[in-house]
Design goal:
The protein is 25% helix and 28% strand. By secondary structure, it is α+β, with helices and mostly antiparallel strands. The strands form two sheets. The protein has a three-stranded antiparallel β-sheet with strand order 3-4-5. A two-stranded antiparallel sheet has the order 1-2. Strand 1 and strand 2 form a beta hairpin. It has one domain. The structure holds zinc ion. The site of zinc ion has 8 residues, from loops. Zinc ion binds next to loops.
């Protein structure tokens, strides 16, 4: 179980926990440093957490209408 601010995540799904943690870190960086992180190297847009094949990933809304997956949040996962 992971607590982020008032949100509570209770799931056996490690991808969901990772996604929630990544969103928490992203919110922290944005509010404390006023920096958009992470950013797509291709489009210069802020990324958001998404899920791809049950893996938590960073997605960019640029490019195609569906956007594209930039990378897995877990550095151990290769897409
Ligand atoms: Zn992009």
């Amino acid at each position: 179980m992971v607590h982020i601010k008032s949100a509570e995540v209770s799931t056996p799904d490690s991808a969901e926990v990772l996604g929630a943690v990544a969103e928490g870190v992203q919110e922290f960086v944005m509010s404390h440093h006023r920096v958009t992180w992470p950013v797509c190297g291709e489009h210069g847009r802020g990324l958001h957490v998404g899920y791809f094949h049950e893996t938590a990933v960073w997605k960019c809304a640029g490019g195609t209408t569906d956007g594209h997956v930039v990378s897995a949040i877990d550095p151990a996962v290769q897409l």
